[in-house]
Amino acid sequence: MSSWLILGLAVLALAGAFAYRLVWRAVRQDGAVPTGYGALIAGFFVFAAVFAHVPQPFLWATLLIAVVSAVYWLDDVIELPVGLRIALQFGTGAGIGYILLCSTLFAHPIALIAVCAAAGCFNAAAANVINFYDGADLNLATLMVLTAISVLVGGAVSPALSAMATAVVAFVVPFAAVNSRPKSLYFGDAGSFAFASIVTACAILSLRDGDARAAYAAIPLAFPVIDAVYVISLRLKRGEDLLSRTYLYLYQQMQAKYRNFTYLAPQAVAILLGSAAAFVLTATGLAPFAAVCITISTVTPLLYLVCRRSLVG
User: Fold this and answer.
1) Residue ranges of the chain with pLDDT lower than 50?
2) How many whole angstroms separate alpha carbon 18 and alpha carbon 251?
3) Alpha carbon distance 277, 292 (integer Å)
4) Distance of CA 257 to the CA centre of its chain
5) Contact, 223 vs 305, CB < 8 A?
6) How far apart are CA 290 and CA 161, in angstroms?
7) DSSP 8-class letter at 311
8) Counting beta carbons within 10 angstroms of the beta carbon of residue 182, is it exposed (0 to 12), middle (13 to 18) or buried (19 or more)?
9) What is the model's pLDDT at position 18?
10) What are the φ/ψ torsions at residue 2 (nearest 5 degrees)?
11) How many Å is the Cα radius of gyration of the chain?
């Protein structure tokens, strides 16, 4: 996409953020902070897919994400039952898998069912991990922008991946400008779901087409995954209800201990060190996918444990 088009999308996202706040506060008189604005990013995905002339299956995948995100937005308004949320997450992931793989070598019924089920599980896990990071201003926005930049800098081959990454930057940066003010506007569960779903679609597409450079996007995503695994393990050990609210995530602990946006630092450091390690390994002759796997299984966990122990104890 041209720089002028990206700028236009960014201006539209910024105007949309202010309009969303006005409408929310006009409709709701309870003083609740406007949330769920992130659901509109799904529309940006569809627009970017059309403009980039992506293959028709991927366009259908973005349309599916947009439709389900509109339904999921209700969770930000009236709070949907947990079972229904998981069903939407799993069903969307499975649907994306079917759309992108039904005409490939995976089209054998048994293989297709297995892969779609795996895609559904991946999407459900991604949606919840990403949603866990929507608990402090700019935290989720930082994760999304870093992930998108990883795709762009890593040099993903597929135009669809580049288009989706650009759409994320164009939408999230203006949102972050508004979100940086406390209690102004939240991305919401629907936005987390939409972002997780496009990550699922891009992951399936890159694996299907052998686009190994897209693996660099896993580096920023690995940090919150490790954080989620750590917190879930800790809560299981304590016998806590996993469906109850918790403030044990690293960024939450740092937010309580430090001022300003210090809790954003570990994410930035994680991607800088992780990307550097992956690029060094790639320079030695390793394939990008292998380099990223080694990085997120060694460098990222070590950095997380160091941050956990030294920053929050």
Assistant:
1) none
2) 27
3) 8
4) 26
5) no
6) 20
7) I
8) exposed
9) 95
10) -70, 160
11) 19
